[in-house]
Model the fold of this input.
Amino acid sequence: MKKKSYIRLIFDQFWLKRLNRIGLSLVLFMFLIALFAPWISPYSPTAYNLDSALSAPNGIHWLGTDEQGRDVLSRLIYGSRISLSVGFVAVGLYVAIGMFFGALAGYYGGKLDILISRVIEIVMCFPTFFLILAVLAFVGPSLFNIMIVIGITGWTGIARLVRGEFLKLRNQEFVAGIQAAGASAARIIFRHILPNALAPVMVSASFGVASAILVESALSFLGFGVQPPTPSWGDILSQSRDFMDIAWWLTIFPGVAIFLTITAFNLVGEGLRDAIDPRLRKKING
Amino acid sequence: MHYALTLYMTNLLDVQNVSKLFPIKGGFWGKTKGHVRAVHRVSLQVKPGEIVGLVGESGCGKSTLGRTILKLLEPTEGKIVFNGADITHLSPKEMRPLRKEMQIIFQDPYASLNPRMTIGTAIAEPLIVHKLVAKKKRRDRVVELLEMVGLNADAYGKYPHEFSGGQRQRVGIARALSLEPKLIIADEPVSALDVSIQAQIINLLSDLQKKLGLAMIFIAHDLKVVEHISQRIVVMYLGEVMETFDSKDLTNAKHPYTKSLLSAIPIPDPNVKKERIILKGDVPSPINPPTGCVFHTRCPIAVDRCCVEIPQLRPIGPNQQAACHLV
Done:
C-alpha cells in the first residue's frame, strides 16, 4: 500500500468526522457565494424601492426588504464579500506578521527573543476591540483600515505559537544537520523549520478568521465599520434595531448568516486541531 | 620549528585544549548562576583517512565535543585547526564554505530527518546550498548517493516516516556524504538502532570510509563497537580525556577508568572468569566537578594526591597517553 503524505493524512483524518465535513462545506459554500455574488443575487444590493419597503419574506423578496425597500437576500450575499475579505485579509496579514516575529524570537533566542516576547506581552495587554475602535476613530472607518487594524493588533497569538514551535524545532537534529551543511539562517528558518510549524498556525488562523468576521460585524454594528450603502452583515443588523418589533427578518437573517459563518470556521478550526493531534503525528512519524 | 610544522600539517583536524561551558541562567534578569562544564581542555588529532573512536558514558561531553569541532557550538576556550587553518573564531558566515569539508551523522534517525521533506530533497539540500551540482544532474547524484548507502532509487520521493530506523540512518549517511567531506563526525550513529541493524550500519560506514578515504570521529559509548571500527580510541570522562591509545592496544589500556569499561565488555565464553570492576556511585555533576582528578570520586585506586592535583595527559607507551598519577 502506498503511504500518504502528511497533508493527505491530516485531510483524511479531518474528513472522518461529519461535523468537520459540514464545517468545510459551509466555508466553501460561503466562498462560492461571495465569489459569484453579482450572478446569484436576485437584485442589486443598493437598489431601493420605497414602495416595497419593509415587506416580509415573500415570493419576490425571499428574505424580505429593509426600510428602503432593498432586497435583504442580495444585501446578505454581497455582505459575505465584506465579511470574508476582512476575515481572510486581516488574518493573512497577522499570520504573516506573527510568523515573522515568532520565527525570529524562537530561532535566535537571547536578547531578540526577550525583546519580541515583551512587545508581544505589551500588545496583548491592550483590550483588542477597544484598541481597534480607538485606532479606527483616528484613521476613519473603511474596509481597508479595518483589515489593517485587525491585522496589526492580532498577530501576538500567532507569534507566541510560532515562537514555541521554533523553540522546540530548532534543537532537533535535522536543523543541526542543515546547519552543519552550511545553509543560511533564512533558508533554515523558512525552508526547514517553518513548514513544520505551520499546522498549529492553520488551526489558529481558522479560529482567527471567525473572530475577525465577528469583530468586523461588531464594528459595523457600532458604525465604525464599512460605510453605507456598502452592505455588511453587522451594518444590516445595526439598522434592523429600529424595526425589530415590526420586521423580524431584518434581525434574524443577518444574525443567522454571521452565526453560520462563524460556526463553520470554528468547526474547521476544531477539526484541524483534532486532525493534527500529536498522537496522529506520532503514528505517521514512526 | 620545521618539524613542528610538518607534524601540524599531517593532521586533518587538530583540537587543542578545547573547553565548552554552558552558562546556567536563572532568576528574573536571567543572570548567569554557574556553568555546566561539558568539555574541559580536550585535545585530539585526526589524520586524513583515519577513524578515531570517542568513548565515554552518557553525559561525558562526547557529543558536545563533536558539535564544537563542527562549530555548531562555539568553543569557550582552546583552538580548533582544520586542514591547517584555524577555524576557532570563524563567524557562522565564514564557516559556510568550510562546512562541505566536514559533516555529521546523528544518533537519532527519527529526529535527524525533516518530516516534511522527501528523502531526495533532504539529500539534495546540501548540494543546493553549496551550488555543487547543476539542477539537471542533481537527481542523478542523489540516486547515486542512495545506492551508495544501499537504498533503492525509489526512496527519492518518499517521506522519512515511510522508512525504518536503519534505513533512515542510511539516508542520514547519504546526506552527510553528499558534500564529499574530508571529515565526518558520527555522533553515536548506531546507539538508537537494533543490534542486528547496528552491525550493518557499522560495516557500511567502515566500507564507505575505506572507499572514500574519509577521516571520521566515531562517537559511541560501546568500547567494543569503537574498537572494531577505529584505529585510535579516545576515552572521555566528565568532559576530560582520560586515555588515548591505538585500537589494537585496547587490552593494554592502563587508566583505571578504561579498565573498568573494559571489564564491562562481556566475553562470549562461559569458562572465562573475569574480574569485574564495578564503579561505585554516580558520575559527579559537571556543574560542580570534583577537584583534582575528575575521576577520583569513583576510582578504585585513588590516593590522596588525586583529590588535589589534576593529572596531565602524558605518554605512557607507544602512541598511548593517560591522565592518571598512578600509571
Remarks:
- Chain A touches chain B through 24 residues (CB under 8 Å).
